Amino acid sequence: MKVFGQRKRAAAAVLAAGTLMALAACTPANPGAAASGSSLVSAAPSAAQPTTTAPASPSAAPGTSATVGAMVPGFPETLLPVMPAAKVVSSSFDKTTEPATVALVGSISAPSAEVLAFYTKELEAQGFKAVPGETVGAVPSKDFLRGETETVNISVLETAGVSTFTIGANVAAESVK
Question: Which of 122, 125, 140, 151 has a CA positioned 20 to 30 A from the CA of residue 76?
Answer without folding.
Answer: 140
